[in-house]
Design brief:
- The complex is a heterodimer.
- By secondary structure, chain A is an alpha/beta fold.
- Chain A has helices at residues 2-21, 38-48, 63-76, 91-96, 104-109, 117-122, 163-177, 192-205, 215-228, 242-247, 261-266, 301-311, 314-324, 340-354, 371-387, 392-410, and strands at 28-32, 56-60, 81-87, 100-101, 133-145, 182-183, 252-256, 271-274, 283-285, 287-295, 327-328, 358-360.
- Helix content of chain B is 73%, strand content 1%.
- In chain B, helix 10 packs antiparallel against helix 13 (249-273).
- Chain B has helices spanning 7-34, 44-51, 55-86, 91-98, 106-117, 122-129, 145-174, 177-185, 190-201, 203-218, 222-228, 235-244, 249-273, and strands at 36-37, 40-41.
- The two termini of chain B are 41 Å apart.
- Chain B is mostly helical.
- Chain B has a two-stranded antiparallel sheet.
- In chain B, a hairpin with a 2-residue loop joins strand 1 and strand 2 (40-41).
- Chain B has a single domain (23-273), classed as MetI-like fold, CATH 1.10.3720.10.
- The chains are: A alpha/beta, B mainly alpha.
Chain lengths: 428, 281
């Protein structure tokens, strides 16, 4: 009896799987690497896509199976997927295998959608064709306790700071309070490496890999070492900056929006969020951009275009923000009924990506399982130069060697803001 | 099948299986991983380990820590063991209280000391209240490596002296009273009796305690992580980081092999120096 029941159950499971995998042809299959947790996937299906006039089957998948399925379908010439959604880093692989159909026509049909120009540019993947339409974004921003604002240096606009102004501000705070209240997430689980890769290096060298060492990089590390003198020394144990911000240990901090959200939500009147500072090469920042693309030879291009149009409408963008916490990829005012934390962080994210001197840097692409070693190169340099006061040029020479070895092992080509490369991204 | 002759082997078998499955096999595996990269036999992992910015630092930190902590613990544990021999009433109670740290995991011990020593901890608060400190003072940071080191020594001594003491107490109890009584009759002072009788007869226990404690001291990890995070690199901590943060089992295993080699070297030294000579017949 038990065995029979088991067999019956697994047969049922198999048939469910089969039907889920091959839905009726009128449905558009929307394959995505985002909103994978079950609550988020349900929210995507029911609230975000609920108002769409048409049938959509939203299938979230891990990066590996996601890429495999699209590439396998493209190779077999039997494409069932109507629309794909993923982070920027996945698209070069798909475009490189000719698995995507450019979406220039769909872009132009969106008209006055006000997609953020920086992201539209990224969506071209360094070519003259539009490979994806920007879908949504997350990012790293700065947060400050309102108490700190009185110490801003004269003439500084907190929404458009420079690194020099940040240093002066932090020094002012220390002079006035006797405490070092600028903080960075340099703990073991903190995201400090993203600050170097996406913020400091692009702002000072307009590069992440190629200009790893050199005059600009040396000057950058020297000024960051100076800045660090006013940084709270507990920073090497901070993982999520919302905690020291709420505790009052830190007044000004850098972190991922998701890791600041508790501070904004718990005490929205005490904290503000603002864009990261700018350096000589612009306002380096690391957007986590997701895009929407259409597979080549897909089943129904018109349906995909209609879905893209729907996903990029302001109402849908807000619904997406509420459902999965990613911010709009279009320039828009956020409504008042959002949670306060989301409003605070959202304003900073939008201001940062839409700022005139924006210099976006992407998550590392093409490193495969060597991503952690890539991060280690940046964090080791930080440890040596800033925490252990090592010679800057010697350290950079040594670490540039490690970085070059890593790039050559993985063969990863350059990504923005570095110039595109044939083969492994060179380290000067 | 189970005769009186084979019974001991049968009784030993489960522990043997346990040791092979959960110790010898993983160990041999780690050894192989340490000498392999991309399926090839190589010293690459050891080269990466030696080139790493934290290698020299973690090696010296660990060594200095062992050289300070182990003798300190030995001295304290000996003192405690000798004191216990003089206590009549309440001896068991004192013994139990002294062994409490043995029941606490090393991570918990690290967290306890973190609560004591952090800039908002009890000691800071107490010293500030007494006017001995101007305000919350940060001791556990990369800026104050000596203070951080001292904190780790405190925590390690507090946590792991009890195991040395337990071994020594057992050893002291095995020393026949007659020797001491005879020496007393001949007018030997307490210090002379300690040096000439207790210490030599305690050699086997000292050997056991030192080997055990030194091996564990080379594996010091949780206390350091709790108090210093990455600011005080030690060998075991680096092995952990390479395994779980950088996801490179090869280099992590290389660290494990290095710790093993150092441990073997120290054990051999102890076995040689504290050798108990056979009584001449």
């Amino acid at each position: 009896m038990k065995t029979m029941l088991k067999t019956g159950l697994s047969a049922a499971a198999v048939s469910t799987l089969l039907f889920a995998g091959y839905p009726a042809s009128a449905e558009t299959i929307f394959l995505s690497t985002q909103a994978r947790p079950i609550e988020e996937a349900e929210a995507m299906r029911n609230t975000v896509l609920g108002a769409f006039d048409g049938e959509v089957d939203y299938i979230p998948q891990e990066d590996g199976p996601f890429l495999n399925r699209i590439l396998a379908e493209a190779e077999a010439g039997d494409v069932s997927i109507g629309l794909v959604g993923a982070l920027h880093g996945n698209f070069p692989v798909l475009a490189g295998a000719d698995a995507l159909a450019p979406v220039d026509d769909i872009m132009s049909s969106l008209g006055d959608r006000k997609l953020i120009g920086t992201f539209v540019e990224l969506g071209k993947l360094g070519t003259d064709k539009q490979h994806y339409v920007p879908w949504m974004q997350a990012s790293y921003v700065m947060a400050a306790n309102r108490e700190a604002l009185q110490y801003l240096p004269e003439g500084a606009d907190v929404m458009a700071l420079t690194y020099d102004q940040l240093a002066a501000w932090s020094a002012n705070i220390q002079a006035a309070t006797g405490e070092r209240k600028l903080g960075f997430p340099a703990g073991r689980k903190g995201l400090m490496h993203r600050f170097f890769q996406g913020y400091l290096y692009p702002s000072f060298t307009d590069s992440v890999v190629t200009e790893y060492r050199g005059e600009k990089a040396s000057a950058m590390w020297a000024s960051f070492r100076d800045l660090w003198k006013t940084v709270n020394p507990r920073s090497t144990s901070y993982d999520f900056m919302q905690e020291p911000l709420l505790a009052g240990e830190v007044w000004v901090a850098f972190d991922h929006t998701a890791r600041l959200m508790d501070a904004f939500n718990q005490r929205p009147d005490d904290f503000i969020a603002f864009p990261a500072p700018a350096g000589p090469e612009g306002r380096g920042f690391m957007p986590v951009v997701a895009g929407l693309a259409v597979p080549a030879n897909g089943p129904d291009r018109a349906a995909a275009a209609k879905l893209i149009d729907y996903m990029t409408q302001p109402e849908t963008q807000i619904a997406t923000l509420k459902a999965i916490g990613f911010f709009p990829a279009i320039e828009m005012e956020l409504p008042d009924d959002l949670p306060r934390g989301v409003q605070i962080a959202g304003a900073a994210v939008t201001a940062q990506s839409a700022s005139a001197d924006a210099n976006p840097s992407l998550l590392p692409v093409g490193l495969g399982d060597k991503g952690r070693e890539f991060n280690k190169v940046f964090m080791d340099t930080f440890q040596l130069i800033v925490l252990r006061n090592a010679d800057i040029d010697e350290t950079l020479d040594r670490q540039a060697g490690n970085l070059r070895k890593l790039m050559e092992e993985t063969g990863a080509p350059c990504w923005a803001p570095d110039e595109p490369s044939d083969g492994a991204c060179p380290v000067k | 099948m189970i005769s009186e002759k084979t019974l001991p082997y049968w009784l030993l078998a489960p522990s043997l299986v346990f040791l092979i499955a959960l110790f010898a096999y993983p160990f041999a595996d780690a050894f192989i991983i340490a000498f392999q990269a991309d399926g090839q036999w190589t010293f690459e992992n050891f080269r990466t380990m030696a080139d790493d910015i934290n290698f020299g630092l973690s090696f010296w930190n660990t060594l200095i820590l062992v050289l300070i902590v182990v003798p300190l613990q030995l001295a304290i544990a000996l003192t405690m063991a000798m004191m216990l021999t003089k206590i009549r009433a309440g001896r068991d109670l004192v013994l139990y209280v002294w062994t409490i740290p043995l029941g606490i995991s090393d991570l918990a011990a690290g967290v306890v000391w973190l609560a004591l020593l952090s800039e908002r901890g009890y000691i800071n608060t107490a010293l500030s209240a007494l006017g001995l400190l101007d305000g919350p003072t940060l001791w556990l940071s990369y800026e104050t490596p000596v203070a951080l080191f001292v904190a780790v020594i405190f925590a390690e001594v507090w946590r792991a002296t009890a195991i040395v003491m337990v071994i020594l107490v057992a050893g002291v109890q095995l020393i026949p009273k007659e020797y001491n009584e005879a020496a007393e009759i001949f007018g030997a002072s307490a210090w002379q009796r300690f040096i000439k009788i207790t210490l030599p007869l305690l050699k086997p226990s000292l050997q056991t305690a030192l080997i055990l404690r030194t091996l564990l001291a080379f594996e010091v990890f949780a206390v350091v992580v709790a108090l210093g995070g990455r600011d005080l690199p030690v060998l075991m901590g680096e092995a952990f980081l390479w395994q779980f943060d950088y996801r490179d089992s090869g280099v992590a295993s290389a660290y494990a092999v290095l710790i093993l080699l150092i441990s073997i070297a120290f054990t051999l030294v102890y076995l040689r120096v504290l050798r108990v000579k056979e009584e001449p017949q």
